[in-house]
Design brief:
It is built from 26 helices and 25 strands. It is α/β, with parallel strands linked by helices. The strands form eight sheets. A six-stranded mixed sheet has the order 2-1-3-8-9-14, with helices on both faces. A five-stranded parallel sheet has the order 16-17-18-15-19, sandwiched between helices. Strand 24 and strand 25 form a beta hairpin.
Length: 702
């Protein structure tokens, strides 16, 4: 401290000397230099809109749309020429529209009005006009034509599929119709939408926010359209609402499908809609990248009917989540079921869905729990994702929750709480005003989490056979194969088991694998799986043992490297450079080993991207079995990995970076060494600026 005080005093003396020099210069009264000439103001870029309408069909004439060209005129009149440069094409061919789109410098906005529900091949497409007849180009060509736009409006029936393709291609704002829609309703929507977009962007509102406000204006324009009617049960003539927005005109349960009165809502649609014209459902897509480490989606993933229903509920909850006070929760749902059923996969699919992303447009946050992370650990992670400073709050969980809640209160967000094991982990998140999607294998957690619970069940046998065939990479129909049926029976319909066995059966017959599997099951290898329910994981672990024994014979290095992954912390990706230390190989060989393990479905490999290097991770069932299998050697493997890391540190002073700086990683590996002695090279341990000596470092192992 005395030495530090001397340094501070020297610093103050240096500052005083500099100040004296500055005062001397100022006292000379040197004439001030003229200020540099101001930079010329940069012109504000003017948005450019290409508005296209296809209406005047002559063959067949029934395709003609009376209001489309009027809609274009009203859109053009609503946009101030001083702010928006609009180019209007009436009844163009596809080639003319593509040429105009490519010739507009800075083309950023696009509007289409016309037919959007015809199909070409397996995709819906837009109808253009050529010599009075319909003309169509395939959907991928349309996506290529419009992918550079910042805002696209497809004001035609059933245009949602094309809008989703545009959103996936990178268009940040896309408006479409999920259902059929009457011409008058869609025209009112389109004119009101573009008028509000021009107003908001001219006022400096970001386009993303302007599009959202304009979407609400378009909906309001449809809802506020009136027609001759009456009030007080017919006693008072009056103008009353004409349209019922949000109701599909083709829903026979809610809407009359035949004349007279075709298209009008039936009593089943509710007292507020009965008698009105069903106007359909407009959709605004604003895709965004979810925050957090989402698991990859398997190539063979197939949506189940219950999955689609959950997605629709999530979207509905998200769209209704903001109240008049600017606050709302967005609902809560839980995916419950034993390990290996695909709960996390389904949650990741929903997080990547552009409609779910658009419903929760302020952010989707993936938060992984597992058995080892506390609620406070995950709250800190969430605070980091949303840039809320909690550094002064330390261990004050209630204060951390309050800080996060203030940020979430006026936003529409979805929190995905993955692999929750205890009610205590989830409870603090119920205080946050955000949508919640939780996955758990523990029934008590699902019961106490609140909201809807969707039980994820095993695959029925036909689905299971298709999955097995896909993982075997064969196009064969296994529905009559006795060995395949027996494997499905033994798997219990668990996707994780079928994926594993399918990978094994690429290189050997199902019959021979079944024989080895039965022998391995007879050895009664037992690993406890918490929250395993009524499923027999012994069969899965027996299959892993068969696989590892085969590797030991055919490729002993791969088997050894796989077993050493038992040192991984739970739910953690290990960079390949760290895996190379663990395996005692160079980075090139580590990459080859990782690809082989992935091919055997024994590990998940994440490709390098941006500033992150390629990495490996394990399913928790794989990790549990490898820890059980290698329980007598795992301490040595932990110590070997630590030695490899220490050898790369300068002067014996260890400063964790990258993988080693992650929360709990260093403590996990130090604790895993058990009674294995750490090397003499460990003279000091420096973690986040705080140092302890060798004895203190060893104390962490206890």
């Amino acid at each position: 401290l005395l030495e530090l005080g001397d340094e501070v005093r020297k610093g103050f003396e240096k500052v005083e000397q500099v100040l004296e020099q500055v005062l001397d210069v100022l006292s000379t009264n040197t004439p001030a230099q003229p200020p540099p000439p101001p930079h010329p103001p940069q012109p504000v870029p003017i948005p450019r809109l290409l508005a296209v309408g296809c209406a005047s069909f002559t063959a067949p004439a029934k395709l003609s749309l009376d209001g489309v060209l009027t809609e274009l005129d009203e859109i053009q009149a609503a946009l101030p020429a001083s702010w928006v440069a609009a180019s209007v094409l009436r009844d163009p061919t596809a080639e003319q529209a593509a040429s105009e789109a490519s010739s507009l410098p800075g083309f950023s906005w696009f509007h289409f009005s016309g037919h959007a529900d015809p199909t070409l091949g397996s995709h819906r497409t837009l109808l253009w006009i050529k010599n009075g007849r319909p003309e169509a180009i395939d959907a991928p060509s349309l996506v290529q034509m419009l992918r550079w736009a910042e805002l696209v409006v497809l004001n035609g029936c059933k245009s949602l599929a094309l809008a989703e393709a545009l959103a996936h291609a990178g268009v940040p704002n896309v408006v479409s119709w999920e259902t059929l829609t009457p011409d008058d309703a869609s025209s009112r929507f389109g004119v009101a939408f573009w008028k509000r977009v021009a107003e908001e962007t001219h006022a400096g509102v970001p386009l993303r926010d302007a599009a959202r406000l304009a979407f609400f204006s378009g909906e309001l324009a449809v809802r506020s359209a009136t027609t001759a009617g009456s009030l007080a049960n017919g006693a008072l003539p009056a103008f009353t609402p004409r349209f019922a927005l949000g109701i599909d005109p083709q829903d026979a349960a809610l809407v009359k499908q035949a004349a007279p009165g075709r298209g009008r809502c039936l009593p089943a649609a509710g007292p507020d809609a009965v008698g009105r014209i069903a106007a359909g459902r407009p959709v605004l897509l604003q895709p965004q990248r979810p925050c957090g480490d989402l698991p990859a989606i398997p190539d063979h993933y197939k949506e189940r009917p219950a999955d689609a229903a959950l997605r629709e509920r999530l979207i509905k909850d998200g769209l209704q989540s903001v109240s008049l006070l600017g606050r709302g929760c967005g609902g809560a749902a839980t995916l419950a079921g034993t390990a290996g059923l695909g709960k996390s996969t389904l949650a990741a699919v929903l997080a990547r869905d552009v409609r779910v992303q658009s419903a929760f447009h302020d952010g989707i946050f993936w938060l992984r729990f597992g058995q080892e992370r506390s609620a406070l650990d995950v709250l800190r992670e969430l605070a980091g994702m949303i840039d809320v400073d909690i550094s002064a709050l330390r261990e004050q969980q209630a204060a951390v929750i309050d800080a996060i809640a203030r940020w979430l209160d006026t936003r529409r967000c979805l929190l995905i709480l993955d692999d929750v094991w205890t009610p205590e982990q989830a409870k603090p998140f119920t205080r946050l005003h955000a949508g919640r999607l939780l996955t758990t294998r523990v029934r008590e957690v699902a019961t106490r989490a609140g909201g809807r619970t969707q039980e994820i069940g095993a695959l029925e046998w036909r689905q299971a056979l298709r999955l097995l065939a896909a993982c075997m990479q064969t196009g064969a129909d296994l529905s009559t194969d006795a060995d395949a049926k027996e494997l499905v029976r033994l798997s219990g319909g668990l996707p994780v088991v079928l994926e594993q066995w399918g990978a094994v059966c690429r290189d050997q017959s199902m019959g021979s694998f079944l024989e080895e599997l039965r022998r391995a099951r007879g050895q009664n290898t037992f690993v406890d799986v918490e929250g395993g329910g009524d499923y027999e994981y012994d069969t899965f672990f027996a299959g892993m043992e068969v696989q590892l024994l085969r590797l030991e014979v055919n490729d002993a290095q791969i088997e050894r490297c796989c077993c050493r992954l038992a040192v991984l912390p739970e739910d953690t990706e290990m960079p390949l450079s760290v895996a190379a230390m663990l395996w005692g190989v160079d980075d090139v060989d580590a990459a080859k080993i990782a690809r082989k393990l992935e091919g055997q479905n024994l590990a998940k490999r994440t490709e390098a991207g941006g500033r992150t290097e390629a990495s490996l991770s394990l399913l928790d069932l794989h990790l549990q079995y490898l820890r059980h299998r290698g329980r007598n050697a795992i301490a040595v493997w932990h110590a070997a990995l630590l030695r490899g890391w220490m050898e790369g540190c300068v002067g014996g002073v260890l400063k964790p970076v990258g993988y080693w700086r992650r929360a709990g990683v260093l403590k996990h590996h130090l604790g895993g060494t058990g009674s294995v002695l750490l090397p003499e090279s460990l003279t000091e341990l420096n973690i986040s600026g705080s140092s302890v000596g060798k004895e203190g470092a060893k104390a962490l192992a206890s």
